[in-house]
Amino acid sequence: MKRILTVLLAAVLFCLPRVAGAAEQFVSFSKGVRPALIRLDPQEWPGVKLAAQNLAEDYGKVCGKALPLTESGFSKIKKTDICIGTLGHSGIESLLTPAQISSLKGAREKYLIIATKDRIVIAGSDKRGTTYGIYTLCEQMGVSPWYWWADVPVEHQDKVCIIPGVYTDGEPAVEYRGIFLNDEAPCLTGWVNENYGGYTSGFYVKVFELLLRLKGNFLWPAMWDAAFYDDDPLNSYYADMMGIVMSTSHHEPCARAQKEWHRYGSGPWDYTKNKEALDAFWRKGIERMAKTEDIVTIGMRGDGDEPMTEGQNIELLENIISEQRKMISEVTGKPASETPQVWALYKEVQSYYDNGMRVPDDVTLMICDDNWGNVRWFPTEERSGGYGIYYHFDYVGGPRNVKWINTNDMHKVKDQMTKCYDSGIRKIWLVNVGDLKPMEYPIQFFLDLAWNPDTQVREHTREFARKTFHAYEDEIASIIDTYGIYAHIRTPEMLKAETYNIQQWSSIVQLWRDLRDRALAVKEKLPARYYDAYDQLVLFQVDAFCNLHEMRMAEFYNDQEAVNKYFARDLELRDYYNKVIAGGKWNHMMDQNHISYTYWQQPEKDEVPVAKEHRMVFDGR
Amino acid sequence: MKRILTVLLAAVLFCLPRVAGAAEQFVSFSKGVRPALIRLDPQEWPGVKLAAQNLAEDYGKVCGKALPLTESGFSKIKKTDICIGTLGHSGIESLLTPAQISSLKGAREKYLIIATKDRIVIAGSDKRGTTYGIYTLCEQMGVSPWYWWADVPVEHQDKVCIIPGVYTDGEPAVEYRGIFLNDEAPCLTGWVNENYGGYTSGFYVKVFELLLRLKGNFLWPAMWDAAFYDDDPLNSYYADMMGIVMSTSHHEPCARAQKEWHRYGSGPWDYTKNKEALDAFWRKGIERMAKTEDIVTIGMRGDGDEPMTEGQNIELLENIISEQRKMISEVTGKPASETPQVWALYKEVQSYYDNGMRVPDDVTLMICDDNWGNVRWFPTEERSGGYGIYYHFDYVGGPRNVKWINTNDMHKVKDQMTKCYDSGIRKIWLVNVGDLKPMEYPIQFFLDLAWNPDTQVREHTREFARKTFHAYEDEIASIIDTYGIYAHIRTPEMLKAETYNIQQWSSIVQLWRDLRDRALAVKEKLPARYYDAYDQLVLFQVDAFCNLHEMRMAEFYNDQEAVNKYFARDLELRDYYNKVIAGGKWNHMMDQNHISYTYWQQPEKDEVPVAKEHRMVFDGR
Asked: What is the tens place of the pLDDT at every residue in A16-70?
């Protein structure tokens, strides 16, 4: 009977349209098929093998003992083995029905998890499909994608079972879904240098794993003082092996970091004056990435992410792109259109487009927001290369950096990204996430939304809270949600004593204090083993931004003593994050100055603000 | 045994300090002493008799049949009569122990409610003490002070009983606790004209009753186009009879309305040019109020609540006040110091004080806020006349009127008024409440705080919600509380498309929409008989202010169609308040224009705003 139901369920699954991202809970901790072994084919993708190894270890985190893993293929399956395989790359087809095979064939990044009483199969349409299937199982077992990156504890279970059935998340709505590690000093760089001696593969493997657990597949790497392909040859190796598609940022053409030009380039970064050197420099980048899935950034901006010098114009840029594409074609031996390329309409570059500049239709046009989360335009014409969006959760630039903590309102992100999706921006969704931490929740939301644009903010936040803390999910979700809304109204870096007037300050601070009280109240109720995760994902930012508001209000009211107190608390909170949370694991991640701003760029040092007399009679200002 | 407990309780009551305002729940709907009759002495104050009559009727609202009432005194008490009397003014002493008498004697506005199985006694130290005792019983029976003013329904009970014991609220912390009906056109005046043919005693008796039920005792009457003493001779008669202390506003000296000068005065409103006429005018005011408890406003401002003309100075003002006091002394036949007087340091008048101007020590110095709820200074020296505070919930003036709806944050009110109390401002607490509606909750809070400055905002809001709606008190209180905080951040009249930037609008509107959703969700759960009260006290303002934010955001985003829609909804909401709530009882109360402001003064008409293109890239503005 159960068998029939399963078959029926499978039949239903392949007939009815599935909502992407909605794999139901298939893990049970009481009944169902209990796995004994993980089984892979020796020909399986190395990246899938690595994910399977993580599954084995995650099982150990949950149940106390890792699952054994064999690469001896599927010829001698024992009951309840987990058989993992990628279509066309292992013998997994032998365990699938023709309908299952055809539902995977040609699909993008799709997995099927098929549990019967005889076995559990995780089959993927491609290496990422299989990997996502594996990590979906990990998450359902209770291992958060953030288990390492935010120290989310794993709840012990006596057993892990799979409920018989066929499960899938379908295919992603957006093809490339990723993050940009940017504006990465002092925090991320300080932490990376201390832990990995630089932006090396030890670090990137952790990032790739996180991305894959979040069902992302795309990354722009750190580039302030780093060169992804050059710093450690294993960086690109692991990306390709694990299934992460790399690219270089919007102003770093041809898969070469700007830092590489500083290391190896000669002459000016000016195509009119130094064509030969630049061509040679770029060709090397193409050669290096040619065997990967990486996307080639084309075009050119001025050195240091500035506009090109005056006089450099549309004609020149069209010529540059034409030369770059010729290079791609020459190196790959295929038409340029067969290598994915992206041209980013960042800042002034959009005006070239507005003024009529066009690139070949196969190039993905990457639309950019205004750096503050407002998308500047939405396409109305189709193009074969499709459209991407480069969005910002973090920004370095005017009027003020947004670098310290998360200031993003998911409702706005949902609104803007839904508009992107609806207008056909479906090729690339990329978001600048600064130091990665403490941007955990926005990253999760962004990547989930890229998989399924129907994702609803509040359901999502609640699910995130539930899966992460296993209790108080309504209240925690409401705190995360409210924090984002409040924080987005005015960023910490722009908050000054003058931001609010005598009518507003006390009400604004009341809102923040109430939110902090709520966040503290939840922490008191949580088991102590959740403190590290809760501090990182919820409390720290609420507390620190509340304290900053209190400090600015004290400045407004000319209360130097209170200013000193709140300033000292700001430093204490910074130290707490760096030195106390998770035993100091995240040291440097809160090194970011955020108080003594005088112009757009960050201050060298935060110093106690000087309180002064402000207008004490309300006159509307 | 019960008797002994009662006596013990009484003993404890008079030994331990009592927290003012904390009369515990002494009404039960199941057991205790069940009243049969209300009994008064024929010599009782008429105002107390009127309150007792209201008690008899309130009992009828609760139980279906009014309590009978006799004025035959206390010689033939039957079991469980409610015996009401004021110390020294009725034979109530015969029903009190010596300890009870001494606890009332010389006390201010204090009541004792003493329930034994033989009888229920409501004894007051003075007429207001007795009245407050009566209305406290009414409220505990379930008749809200707002039963008429906000149509709060009365829950039916099969019986009303008093739990044996001795109950008191002690004495008020602040001597005069009142409101100022001001800026009263078009709303209050429109409503008053339609219902009472002007500011007559029919209207004022309703106001006085409300004030007494809220344990207030002080009123500045409407004065834009009204003259309290002159419009209806019964106005002052009822105030005095019921126990309301009147005064005239800060710029209307000697108990004469400015309107009276326009009606009867001759020559300029200038003491240097028209001393004789002004003296005669003012003397008449003193003569008229001489037999009341009213407080005489002294000093002078320019006509129409403007500063006096240039050149008029401290010396002149000191001379005016000296003449006014001479007049008071001559009319009353007593030293001026025996008639309570107030001098308001409103706007520029405070600078006279700052520049050294002083008035005799027995005059109450009335400190004023900046019209926006920020108290400008706190006294440091004691004075025999004490200090008052003139506070604003509503304001007409620059930068923009605050007239439409409630925009007050009770946390700020608590903060400011506690500072007032702590610095010795304990003689008068007066607040400008505009049209009275929809300022219900802030009025309740202000007067309760004046009785007991230890009142805590959130406990109070919760109690208000519980007593008013008898359900969902946590959620309703949170909505009221949050509304006040949000509304105070930017008043409706000052809210423009330009108020927020592209970074802020969506988050601000998200906050408002969430709050409206919560307010609507509560209404859906409430019984329909609560809709009128809920609309007036909670929902209307949340909904209307949310809608205004939506309209301004649509203007910002240049979406004329949406602007039109929200503007139309604003008019619908206005009509709903005026014509639908309580069957149109409050017609005109929402006549206030609030959209088409171009300078501080209200617009003649609200017209659809014209959406326009705003800055769509965030640059910090």
From this structure: 333 334 578 999 999 999 999 999 999 999 999 999 999 999 999 999 999 999 9
Is residue A411 helix, strand or coil? helix
Among B402, B406, B393, smallest CA distance to B432 is for B393
CA distances from A154 to A460, A535, B330 (A): 20, 16, 87
Report the run of H or E that residue B84 belongs to, with start and end.
strand B81-86
CATH architecture, domain A176-455: Alpha-Beta Barrel (3.20)
B411 touches chain A (CB under 8 A): yes
A536 within 8 A of A147, measured Cβ to Cβ: no
Residue of A532, A555, A569 whose CA lies nearest to A609: A555
Q: Tell me whether B456 touches chain A (CB under 8 Å).
A: no
CB contact (8 A) between residue B373 and residue A415:
no
Residue A7, pLDDT > 80, answer no
H helix or E strand, kind and range, residue B38: strand B37-40
CB contact under 8 A, B374 and A398: no
Calculated CA dihedral for residues B260, B263, B265, B268, nearest 10 degrees: 100
What tokens does A356 get? 């009529």
Domain with CATH 1.20.58.2150 in chain B: 464-584
**Is B600 touching A (CB cutoff 8 A)?**
no
CB contact under 8 A, B370 and A398: no
Given CB atoms, is A502 within the 8 Å cutoff of chain B? yes
What's the CATH architecture for B21-167?
2-Layer Sandwich (3.30)
* A253 part of contact set with chain B, CB < 8 Å: no
Q: Say if CB A277 and CB A267 are below 8 A apart.
A: yes
Q: Which residues from A are below 8 Å from B502, CB to CB?
A: 370, 372, 374
A-chain CB neighbours of B515 within 8 Å are none
Q: What is the model's pLDDT at position A355? A: 87
Chains A and B form CB pairs within 8 A to the count of: 92
Q: In A540-594, which ranges are continuous DSSP H helix?
A: 540-556, 560-575
Residue B22 vs residues A113, A124, A359, A438, B415: alpha-carbon distances, Å: 65, 69, 77, 47, 21
Residues of A in contact with B485 (CB under 8 A): 507, 510-511
Distance from CA of B97 to the nearest CA of A (A): 49
B510 at the A interface (CB within 8 A)? yes
Query: Coil, strand or helix: which one is B109?
Result: coil
Contact flag B507-A415 (C-beta cutoff 8 Å): no
Q: In chain A, which segments carry CATH 3.20.20.520?
A: 176-455
A507–B374 C-beta distance less than 8 A: no
Q: Which helix (H) or strand (E) element contains residue A431?
A: strand A428-432
Q: In what order do the strands lie in the sheet with B165-167?
A: B69-70, B37-40, B81-86, B119-124, B111-115, B165-167
CA angle B89, B94, B95 (to 5 degrees): 105
Cβ of residue A504 closer than 8 Å to a chain B Cβ: yes
Output the pLDDT for position A621. Answer: 81
* Class of the CATH domain delimited by A464-584: mainly alpha
- Residues of CATH 3.30.379.10 domain(s) within chain A? 21-167
- The mean pLDDT value of chain B amounts to 94
ipTM for the predicted complex comes to 0.93
As a whole number of angstroms, the distance between CA B408 and CA B394 comes to 9
The pLDDT of residue B310:
59
Chain centroid to Cα A272, Å, comes to 37
